[in-house]
Amino acid sequence: MPLISIDVQEGVTTREQRQAISDAVHDAMREVLGIPDDDRFHVFTEHPAGTIFHDDVVFGIPRDERLMFITLSFNQRPAEQKERLFAAVVQQLEGRAGVTRDQVVMRILETASENWWASGRVVNPATGYDERMDVAVPD
Predict the structure, then answer these.
(1) DSSP character string of the chain
(2) b/e burial code for range 57-71 (CB count within 10 A of at least 16 → b)
(3) What is the pTM assigned to this prediction?
(4) What is the pLDDT of residue 83?
């Protein structure tokens, strides 16, 4: 049950672009993490101009008001899988939402599976993940 938060400056994206961003992130998570099709919880927060601060050039790359911050919250995953997820999200965003890699900052917040709840969700006690997911049982 991932929970995705996407912070952007107010007025920088349209409703249609936010939908495309949500679709891109969701499809990347389905591809890499194997989450079910109907496991989408995405929250966009638009911040007024003058409330998001960053340098004009970060890591040698110019940044502007289109910079978005994506927080991906889910159960613990291996580092290699998270690397693949970052790459897949960027690829999907570029292809589907017109968002370049230079406009994205991402972070992952991991938490134990017992810290999640939603009505109807059934967790496989052996894996700690949604029972509909094909996840190997930990050793």
Answers:
(1) --EEEEEEETTSS-HHHHHHHHHHHHHHHHHHH---TT---EEEEEE-TTS----SEETTEE--TT-EEEEEEES---HHHHHHHHHHHHHHIIIII---GGGEEEEEEE--GGG---TT--B-TTTSSBTTS--PPP-
(2) eeeeeeeeeebbbbe
(3) 0.84
(4) 97
Q: Give the integer Cα–Cα distance in Å for 26 and 4.
A: 9
Spatial separation of the C-alpha atoms in residues 136 and 78, rounded to whole Å: 12
- 5 Cβ neighbours under 8 A, 6+ residues apart: 42, 43, 45, 70, 71, 73
Each domain of the chain, given as residue ranges in start order, spans 3-115
Residue 113's pLDDT band, with cuts at 50, 70 and 90, is: confident
**Residue 57 and residue 53: Cα distance in Å, rounded?**
12
Tokens of 71: 């927080």
| Residue from 133, 117, 136, 126 nearest 29 by CA | 133
For domain 3-115, is the CATH number 3.40.50.1820? no
